[in-house]
Here is the input.
Amino acid sequence: MSLRIDGEVERPAQLSTHDLAALNEADQIADVSRLDPKRHGRAVRLSGLLAHVGARATAKYLTLHATADDFHASIPLEAVRDRAVLIYELDGAPLPAKAGGPLRFLVPDHAACRMDEIDDCANVKFVDHIELTVERGRDNRPTDEEEHADLHRREAQN
Ligand SMILES: Nc1nc2c(c(=O)[nH]1)N[C@H]1C(S)=C(S)[C@@H](COP(=O)(O)O)O[C@H]1N2
Ligand SMILES: [Mo]
Here is the structure.
């Protein structure tokens, strides 16, 4: 399992968990529960990832793709670039699927679902592709309460 990062970047990359762990120590977060008590594991800051691939100034949107369940979210980059993280490990092992692993995007201090553009729904689980774009990209997050409730019902069945 690896993460592809492309779009408005100087150096598109395909990163393994090992590569993420090898990114700058200053961008590593040993225990993400210090940022969000509900989440656990080892994470790397989005800003560290962006520096690694050389995000261009033209990049305005961050689009998170989860091929596993065909879930996609596209959010304004500026709002999350300095606080979002990617969780990639729990207790020395890959982040388990029930926690959204192997890779999970997290914006600490997000709004509740459906209250804002950057909400719990934007905390994309099973992320395998991050795309930086000029315009908003693919986004199939629920658009009303009924869709949102359906999504959670489907999740509970898996
Ligand atoms: N890939 C993927 N990510 C997702 C979702 C999903 O259905 N698929 N649901 C979102 C929603 S609506 C919520 S509230 C949170 C739930 O995360 P949790 O199950 O870890 O609490 O994940 C978000 N990320
Ligand atoms: Mo949700």
Q: What stands out?
A: The mean pLDDT is 94. Helices lie at 17-21, 46-53, 77-80, 145-157. The first strand starts at residue 2 and ends at 7.
